[in-house]
Design brief:
The complex is a heterotrimer of chains A (298), B (303) and C (469). By secondary structure, chain B is an all-alpha fold. Chain B starts with a helix and ends in a 5-residue tail after the last helix. Chain B contains 15 helices and no strands. Helices cover 68% and strands 0% of the residues of chain B. Chain C has 17 helices and 13 strands. Chain C is globular. Classes of the chains: A mainly alpha (298), B mainly alpha (303), C alpha/beta (469). At the B-C interface, α5, α7, α13 and α14 of B face α1, α3, α11 and α12 of C.
Chain lengths: 298, 303, 469
Amino acid sequence: MTAKLTGLGREIWRNRVGYLFIAPGYLAFIAFMFLPLAVAIGLSFYKASFAIDQRQFVGLLQYERLFTNVKFQKALFNTIKYVLVVVPATVGLSLVISLLIHPRGIKAQSFYRGAFYLPAVAGGVILSVVWLWIFNPTFGLLNYLLGLVGIEPVLWLASTRYSFWAVSMVVLTFTLGQPIILFLAALANLNQDLLDASVVDGANNWQRTWYVTLPLLRPVILFVLATQTIGVFQVWETIYMLTEGGPSSSSTSLVFLIYQTAFIASKYGKASAIGVVLLILVAIVTLLQLRLWDRSEV
Amino acid sequence: MTTTTTTVGKSDEKAYHRGLWSSRLGRLFSYLVLTVLAIIFLMPLYWMVTGSFKLQTITMAVPPEFFPSKPTLGNWTNLFTGPWPAWRWLLNSIIVSMLTVVLVVIVAAMTGYGFAKKRFPGSNVLFFILLSTMFLPTQVMLIPLFLLVSGLHLTSTVPGTYLAMALPMLSSPFGVFLVKQFASTIPDELFDAAKLDGASEWQMFTRIAVPLLAPALAALAIFTFNLAWNYFMWHLLVATDKSMYTIPVGVSFITRVPAYGKVTQDIGLMMAGGTFGAFFMLVFFLAFQQYFVKGITLGAVKG
Amino acid sequence: MFTKIRLILFMAVTAFLLAACAQPQVVEKEVVVTKEVEKEVTVVVAPERIDITMWVFGSEGSAKADTGELWSDFYSRVINEYEKQHPGVNINFFLRGVEAGGTTTFVDAAVAAGTPPDIYYDGTFRIQKYAQAGLLELLDGAITEKDKAAYDPGILSVTTGPDGIWALPIGTGYVAYVINKTMFEEAGLGDLLPQEPDRNWTTDEFLKACRAINDPPNRYCTMFFAKTPSFDTSFNNWFGGFPGCDLYDKEKQEYVANSPECVEAMTFLHSLQEEGLTVPGPSGFVDDDQDGYWKRQEIAMTGGGFWYNGVTTRGLEDGSIKGPMEYLLVNYPHKPGAPPTPMGTWDPHAWSVFKQDNPKKLAVILDFINYLQQPEIGVQIAAGWNEVSVRNDALNPWADDPDWAWVVPVVQKYGAKNYYYSSGVPCNYNEVRLAWAEARQAFWEPDADIQQILDDFVGQANGIIAECD
């Protein structure tokens, strides 16, 4: 039987073990990732709803409409804003916290690491439930505490000025845990010789942190940057629970708009088009970050 | 320069390479900063747990009560006797998460091992394609997946719904990546020796690779369990009935639509629901903290 | 070692939780009516078996018909009765609750799967999207001319398209304004309230009462909410006091909410907020938040009255309202010189039927719908959503209730109006409703430019209907 196979077939047959091992995984990827992705891109050229048999091909119409749609523009703008606000804040804050935790003893390390990771474990929905209460303008904890230092009550979720920041704040509480764990692991594995050498050179703690530790952490920082970016692009449940994207779309995001368009307005084609725009946006940002990464490897 | 060396000198021999704020005062200060930050980040959870024991009037009192002076179990009674199957939600979450874990671990183990230990044409390209999906926003695929599970009529039965909730997680490149990284460190000699002893490929996988991969698989399992537990958006779409909600969906239900049960938004109840929803996962985390850490760090670039 | 102990501990906790879960804590809410097979009925020709699936959107348990019977039990009884009369017909009834998202994704999923229910009961604008997709049967055949004549023509026209009736309305609720009478009387301000018998008032009179009772932060005059589209009719009813202000113009088939009259109305509402007469932060509130303020007696009056009579009565019963608290339903204020505000109605609930292949089955379904819409049954079904029947010949189940004794003559005198849409549900209404919620959120910004907000809304909404084709 093998003899009958031609070049490529024979090659595959010879390596069948390898292919068979990856087959279940790859089939799952095809079924639940690649095919849905292809269908989603395809759907974006249709006008479609739950009555999927009645879809109509409309070409690029959905995209044309999107770019004159105010709500979409706001969602696009906000999504970028979330990434630009939450990602640097997460990376910066988690780096500082990690540098503070790292020199402490094992027990303290594990305690603080756990403490900062707990919110992530609880999950965005559960956290949002309690934040809804904390943000309440009349009897919420936050306004009470601010009142103690003489700040007037703030309408956290109800004003276009603050809703974005309120959502960002909640998102930040559960994005922080993972980078801290990564940074601590990286710090524990740092090249001790280089650090020792810097001491000999007379660098103080601050200089050493700035000129030696941070550059050594660069690959991890870039990794965290990449994973956090994709994570923040997908923030959804916090918006769903806290603000529904409002007021006046001030806290909405592309993913939330996809949800609303697909499952409240039942416009599958339009929602898919928004999805494709998100995909392109994420691809651009990821490629930019990969270039940064490449440069750091040099 | 001399001053630095003297400080580094005898008194604090170990501390010099340990990082910022190594002096006693500095240490005190950094503990202070860390503790304050930790309190800020844990405050919501504290507020939620204590809130679940507060009376309705007290949850809305100004100034707020930092510790329930007259603790009540009323919210918890309401949660378990209300018109929603709270225990069933927990059961659903456990089943769905476990099902996801089993599927993901088996598939990731095989695929990761295949990529790490088998050389075959196209393996690099195939692996790269797989890895690149890590950067795909999964919400793009939501509608096709929704149409897929509807078309297969999965959501019309209870086991089908569990399966529908778990299946899309199978396409997580993270697990494959993690296993591959780990499996690459297994020396090839082990497999060569087994081969000489006449072991089949499958035996080499189950008898040699899997035991050695166990720590990585355990970390992956724990980590996936958490991910599956909080895979809210998909569960929300797939659950066609209240009895099929998972815990986060159920909690969002209590929070968002009380009026349909003709009950006014009840903060104590929301907090009891939230605490109930978080409790299992928090215990899980505290029991398996090191696996969470491993799951996160193994999947990352080498530090 | 430690890991092992922890693992065992964790397994124990899990096992315990699983065991706890296995106990049937809460009975499943899906009510499936199983018919006892009637063996005595020996029919000469065995009737063809017809299975009908029926989904009713509503809340379980607590929703009761006015007989005090559980809604689901009432349905079971009616269905059993019908099945007895029609051997071979088997009706599978499901009471479907709202999803956490307030949407009905499970219906979408069923449609996408090609297995929608045969009969579906829900609010008209949620049904409308299925009608718009051409998935529904026309129901003209389900009612006789005599029935048709009994329907409130204003309500029936909402669900009537160019081809016929795509959903058959059963009940609707009135909106009205509700006042905490006790609060006013205790403050000695009772004489500022609208007078019997019509309980109409002007915006000036409203403002006067509002300012007198307002005492923040303990007590606000009123409250608005705008976070979600939920119950937007309680806001839209304000249009009625400013004649000429409409959300949608059925003749022109376009949204017209940026008319000068609407700007005037919204400016008035915005000024209430500016003056501190409302609970701050309306755009972040949902109607459930408002329930809380009302029950804690922190607002003196609010819209959506025919929801709050129920909330108050039940709250006093179950102790969640600390009495005494007497409420008064009144009409929404109208601007000086304008006629009294027509009473607002909310989105009617209606029957709809998904497309059928089998004409015999369709005939049975239409007959069953006809059975359900009979006045004495329809009244009970409407009661499940706190609504009154839309048939004129139906008994008013709340005839002895003073609330309704007031409203019925007022409706006869000044008319009723659905402020969601003048008549007929425009296409893509769910999306427009989202846009309207956004506009309502924008009204509460401190420096809101009302004209601009309304122009933006109209532009968006007309853009959405332009996408209908």
